[in-house]
Amino acid sequence: MGKAMERACDDARHSGVVIVSSLASDAHTWNLVYLQLLLEEHGFEVVNLGACVPDELLVAECLDRAPDMVVISSVNGHGYQDGLRVIAQLRRRPPLARTRMVIGGKLGISGARDGLRADRLLDAGFDAVFPDGPDAVPEFERYLSHVFERVAS
Amino acid sequence: MTVEFRVPSHTAEDGTAGNSTGFGEFVRHRAASGELVVQPRMGFSDPARMRAGLLATRRAAATTVGTLTVDSYTRVGDLAAARDALRAGIALNGYPLATHPRETTAQVLAGIAADDFPVQVRHGSADPGHIFTALTAAGLSATEGGPVSYCLPYGRTPLEKSVDSWARCCEDFAEPRRPGVRPHLETFGGCMLGQLCPPGQLVALSVLEALFFHRHGVRSISVSYAQQSHPGQDREAVRALRVLCARLLPDADVHIVVYAYMGLFPQTADGARALLGEATRLARATGAERLIVKTEAEADRIPTVAENVAALEHAARTARRHRAEAPAGADDDSQVHAEAYALIDAVLNAAPDIGRALVQAFKRGLLDIPYCLHPDNAGRSRSYLDRDGRLRWADVGSLPLAPLVGAGRSRPVTSGELMSALSYVRRTFDGDPYGELRGRPRGKAVEDR
Ligand code: B12
């Protein structure tokens, strides 16, 4: 393990399985690759489902793997409506009713003005929303240390 | 919206006649008189806005061609989602070409799309039958893509399926719909994931896709190259592209299109303009005929019509200050050329049919895109930025490049190092090389060897 990696791991060590996923219409993957590395550095085991994940595949993978958390990332500007559609399908399944699920990225096509609609995603069943911006990742890391117990390393 | 559709002025029978018209011919003629053709990446779901955008592009103080960029639902073939969004009044990230009625698209284009203002459809679909059908029905004859570059970066469609689908679409598209109008196809292979793919492989893919189009009957072709992280290396790449096309596609009408940077864009207006200026100088210094611009809104959101026009005019002003250099001669001893040549050679020897050869090449790792998550990508190659910002191989995996670059093995990168490499260009042009001003990203430029 490299120096930087060790340092990153010292910051906060958690354990558990996290599914990282895009949404059905979104092809962007650098965001997914980045989030996978970040979560692994925090000690999680990550299953990265990749780009353009159909709703049914995401539901099936979640039922199959019973993850500790689902992290949805979308930047193509269709994230609001696609996120609303898929969270309804996920929450409908009793085993997934209480699984921790968050979403983040560039969720609409109008930049900062999109922030206003985050409430609807929370109402629809997401536990947290991280709209793109300089604070998105630091806030996500704070959220992780808040909701997950640390494991002694 | 009642203007008549302009009838083409040339009526040559033969698609290869010297006086035929179309996207490729337009660009060639303008370039011959020393102009750089500039083009936006523009797409709106509202037809009135789309029309206003095309009109503003046409009227911009620049030599322009028009763009109709298709939305993500249409790209992945989810026409039901496109229809639902239109009904619900949700604005999309592009024009839903296969969902708006044909008459609507005709009205969008009427009196704007013409011989002296060709309009190209840009999509990003691995299975594009519905898009080709819709664009030819709309009377358009220029588009973009490729069996690899519209597959690996754009989802999870198997490569083999994309190759078959693109072969069928090319053959159908190659038949001229209107007499004298030659269908034009641009490779997206010079971009792939937009960032961190060493230029040798971008050039190889662009050439291989041009060969694929040619084998399937298309004769008017443009080959793309997306600006990367080092101006000198980018110049080598565009020259290599020119030399390889002259050698491998002697009987096609080929021009070069440069894309302004396709990775994490600067967040300041000054930075965005400076980066676009650099892309324009790249096009001029290499004699590229066309440039696709990016706007000041790139880092954030879908740009407005006005932002697109500002970018087009900024590029045109910059182009006027720099004369187009004559294309390079037949020789090229650059590193980018050597790498591209080795990759093309290995792929063409993998199977007699170019489509099968591409599928084989990815299976065997003879082509391998760094950080690409697509299931058909080997994922063993890795890249890094050297001290000067040149893109280099940290790990060639099974790419046939070991004799050219040495067979390094890389260690895994951290999230901070990845972000540092992804944001190198952004930081440089925002005047914040160490990422101190915005508190992100963490770490300095990586040297992963
Ligand atoms: C590279 C790129 C591409 C590549 C993607 C290749 C690939 N497979 O990844 C290509 C060229 C293929 C591409 C295609 C398209 N793209 Co694009 N692309 C970009 C670009 C230039 C950089 C994205 C990137 O690499 N980011 C690197 C990652 C690490 O950063 P990030 O994505 O910003 O994610 C960060 C944060 O958002 C946050 N975050 C993201 N998700 C989450 C989730 C959680 C839980 C948390 C905590 C944080 C978080 O953390 C990340 C790290 O800071 C951006 C513009 C830009 N940013 O400069 C446009 C951009 C994202 N693309 C855009 C669009 C619209 C498209 C297209 C639809 C084409 C089009 N109409 O222009 C297609 C997509 C097709 C589809 N089916 O989705 C738009 C989206 C507009 C919007 N949301 O308002 C952008 C913003 C460009 C623009 N201004 O128009 N694109």
Structure, described:
The complex is a heterodimer of chains A (153) and B (449). Helices cover 42% and strands 16% of the residues of chain A. With 153 residues, chain A is of the alpha/beta class. Chain A has a single domain (29-152), classed as Rossmann fold (3-Layer(aba) Sandwich). Chain B has a domain at 23-321: Alpha-Beta Barrel (TIM Barrel). In chain B, helix 8 links the parallel strand 5 and strand 6 (220-226). Classes of the chains: A alpha/beta (153), B alpha/beta (449). The A-B interface holds A 2, 4-5, 8, 24-27, 29-30, 32-34, 37-38, 41, 48, 50-53, 76-78, 81-82, 106, 108-112, 114, 134, 137-138 and B 72-73, 75-76, 78, 81, 85, 88, 90-93, 124, 153-156, 193, 195, 297, 300-302, 371-375, 411-419, 422, 438-440, 443. Cobalamin sits between chains A (25-31, 34-35, 71, 73, 75-77, 102, 104-106, 109, 130, 132, 136-137, 140) and B (41, 43, 69, 72, 75-76, 93-94, 124, 153-154, 191, 193-194, 262-265, 297-299, 301-302, 422). Chain B: It comes from Streptomyces lydicus. Chain B: Pfam families: Met_asp_mut_E.
CATH architecture group name of the domain at 23-321 in chain B: Alpha-Beta Barrel
Number of strands of chain B: 10
CATH class of the domain at 23-321 in chain B: Alpha Beta
**What is the count of β-strands of chain A?**
5
Strand content of chain A: 15-25%
Question: CATH superfamily of chain A, called what?
Answer: Cobalamin-binding domain
User: Order of SSEs of chain A, N→C?
Assistant: HEHEHEHEHEH
Largest sheet of chain B: 6 strands, parallel
Structural class of chain A: alpha/beta
Major sheet: arrangement of strands of chain A: 2-1-3-4-5
Helix content of chain A: 40-55%
What is the helix content of chain B?
40-55%
Overall residue-averaged pLDDT value of chain B: 92
